[in-house]
Structure formats: C-alpha cells, structure tokens
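Work Package 4 report. The design task specified in the project plan requires that, given a folded chain encoded as structure tokens, an amino acid be chosen for each position. We show below one input record used in the internal validation round.
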C-alpha cells in the first residue's frame, strides 16, 4: 500500500498566524518546496479560506487575538477538517498534550526551523493519506465484523451495534493492532478525533463500554495488562 504524500503541486496548505513575518516565512519556505500556500491572520480569515479552497493541511498558531488556536482546532476537528499542525511559543508538556488531545495532528514549539516544519507537514500528510487508504477495509474477529468505510460494527447475526465515535476509534486501534499490548497513551493518541469523549474521558471508560457492547465477560476480548495497558485477544482477519 502506498501511503506517500501527494505531489506538492496538488497540495494546498493554510498558514494561520497573526505575525506577518512568520506567515511570510512559512509561505515562502513551503512554496519553495512546491506547495501552494494560503495565509490567514486569524480564525475568521481561516474559515473564509477553508470555504474557498481545498485545503489539505492547516498550520495554526495558538496565541491569536479573538478565537485562539486551541479553540479553533477543537472546532475544526469536530467538523472533520483537514489535519492541523499547531505552532506555539507555549512548549511545556501540558501545553503540547492539550494541543494533541483536542485534535492537532502535530504540535511544534516556536521557534522551529523551516526544515522541521517541512518534515512535519510531510509526515502529517502521509498520516492523512494512510488513514484515507485504510477506510475501505473490513475486518472480522470472533464472528464480529467492523467496516471502517461504513463506520459500522456488526455482530454475528448481522445486527448493527451502536458505538460513539470515540468507542469506534478505540476499537479501530485494537483491530489494527491485535494481539499486542497497547498502552493507555497509545490508545488516547489513536482515539483523539471529532468525538470529545475520546479524550475527555478516561480510556479505561472507553474500554469498559466496548467490553459491554462486545458482550465480553472480563478479559475475554480485551485483556487488561496490569501497569501496561490493554491486549486485544482475538485473531483478526481482513475480509
């Protein structure tokens, strides 16, 4: 499967930053590598650009007047917007974690070099393309069937099981990495997305809900590995 990023000439980026010098530097640097770049000074201009252009990725400053970058990122990810790379002078661990938990694909601390930004943009685009390529897959385990394209989980009788977006994201992490111990942090990273339950509530709660909906008794399907995380017990096959 080819998960390479698209050719830069076909890719439009949006730089959102109230600092004129930073906007100009990023636009010029990324433009030199073949990307088409739009710029915006605030969240309002960002919304206008998103409505006008097919944006593949957003480079978003955190500290902006009006709606700040964190609020804008939270709103964007709930709407299924393009991947967001956050740029911020706030580089402490709690700041970085918060940015990732609200839905940012990556979080870079200013000052960062154009080379680092370029590498991060390419990585985020590869991740986006890889996720898109995976959406057409269906998998089975113990009579259950999960369809990523349709966003459905079906039981052995073909009955649809209702999952929240957060629960589905956690299930997907398990199905794509079966029979491996997944740490809680890894599940949290996999589950962040448009459903705020994926990060506002403990992963333990998500796993407990999944167990109930999979009608699992104890560790029958999802095994708890003390002090390490969780282990998806069934063997998974691609359908």
């Amino acid at each position: 499967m080819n998960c390479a990023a698209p050719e830069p000439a076909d890719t439009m980026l949006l730089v959102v930053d109230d600092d004129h010098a930073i906007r100009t530097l990023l636009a010029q640097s990324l433009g030199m590598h073949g990307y088409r770049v739009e710029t915006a000074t605030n969240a309002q201009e960002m919304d206008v650009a998103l409505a006008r252009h097919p944006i593949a990725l957003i480079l978003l400053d955190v500290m902006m007047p009006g709606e700040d970058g964190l609020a804008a990122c939270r709103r964007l990810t709930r709407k299924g917007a393009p991947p967001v790379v956050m740029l911020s002078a706030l580089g402490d661990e709690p700041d970085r974690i918060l940015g990732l938990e609200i839905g940012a694909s990556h979080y870079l601390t200013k000052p960062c070099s154009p080379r680092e930004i370029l590498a991060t943009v390419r990585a985020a685009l590869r991740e986006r393309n890889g996720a898109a390529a995976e959406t057409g897959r269906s998998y089975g385990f113990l009579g259950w069937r999960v369809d990523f394209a349709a966003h459905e989980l079906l039981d052995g009788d073909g009955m649809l099981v209702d999952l929240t977006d957060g629960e589905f994201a956690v299930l997907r992490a398990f199905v794509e990495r079966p029979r491996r111990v997944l740490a809680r942090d890894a599940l949290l990273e996999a589950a962040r997305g448009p459903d705020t339950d994926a990060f506002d509530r403990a992963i333990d709660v998500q796993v407990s809900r999944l167990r109930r909906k999979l009608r699992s008794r104890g560790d029958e399907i999802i095994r708890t590995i003390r002090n390490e995380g969780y282990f998806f017990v069934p063997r998974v096959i691609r359908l």
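The chain is about 40% helix and 20% strand. Validation will be extended to a larger panel in the next phase.
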